[in-house]
Amino acid sequence: MREEYAARVRGEAIPKQHVETFLSTVAPRGAGNCATSHDAAAQARRHRQQRRWATQVIVTDELARHACAERGLAPPDDVLPMHLLTIPETDVADLGSIIAAALAHSPAARALLADLEREQHIPETAVRDYYDRNRDRFLAPDALRRGVDPFNTVEPSDIHPYEHVRDGIAQQLRHAAARRAFFDWLDRAKAYVVYAEGHEHPGDPSQPDHEHRH
């Protein structure tokens, strides 16, 4: 008898129906009834991968709920939101579609990421180093229009002063460090997950449809 759960997180079962409900809400619909047998096979493969993708999003939400409870964070909404939120393309590129979707749909994942960000300490030397290595990002508008090369001799007015941009740089570096911490946390947390057949990670090389792309 096939399992009725998609995965177990710390021994607790996630029903397959949760995955199907989420998938039916956020995934594109099929191409219709006029598909050829080749198209039908491709559609079936795509649906299997979408199911695995959706399982990962829901598992990430459940793991984040456990992490929030362990950290004493205020409990997020009781149910994973079953509506489509816009996921910026830059987030998909930077985070991968699974984590980007989890952060878009899971209040617990967002609460955990925010808590991780509060923990990050960025040394002043790192902030200053970023400023010195990325002077092109701090050109004044007039210097940009004139095509000033920020890595050659420039006028003081061509570059935004460090004191004016320092806080923004620190926040950017803290944000990036929190995302790395989130990745690390998720890699460790997945040791407590057991997947049912057909719900493995879409990049798992042990299953025939596997693919790993962002």
Describe this structure as you would to a colleague.
The chain is mostly helical and 214 residues long. The protein has 8 helices and 3 strands. The longest helix is centred in the first third of the chain and has 35 residues, at 37-71.
Task: Record keyword descriptors for this entry.
3 strands, 6% strand, mainly alpha
Averaging pLDDT over every residue, what do you get? 81
Task: Tell how many strands the DSSP assignment holds.
Answer: 3
Biggest sheet details: 3 strands, antiparallel
* Contiguous helical run count: 8
Which spans have pLDDT < 50 for at least 5 consecutive residues? 28-35
Helical proportion? 55-70%
Q: How are the strands of the largest sheet arranged? A: 2-1-3
Query: What Rg is obtained from the alpha carbons, in whole angstroms?
Result: 22 Å
Structural class determined from secondary elements = mainly alpha
In N-to-C order, the SSE pattern is EEHHHHHHHHE
Percent of sequence in beta strands: 5-15%
Please identify the oligomeric state: single chain
The rough form would be described as elongated
- Report how far apart the termini are: 34 Å
What's this model, at a glance?
This protein is mainly alpha-helical and 214 residues long.
Question: What order do the helices and strands come in, and which of them pair?
Answer:
Elements: E1 5-9, E2 12-15, H1 16-26, H2 37-71, H3 89-95, H4 97-105, H5 107-119, H6 124-133, H7 141-146, H8 162-189, E3 193-195
Helix pairs in contact: 1-2, 2-4, 2-5, 3-4, 4-5, 5-8, 6-8
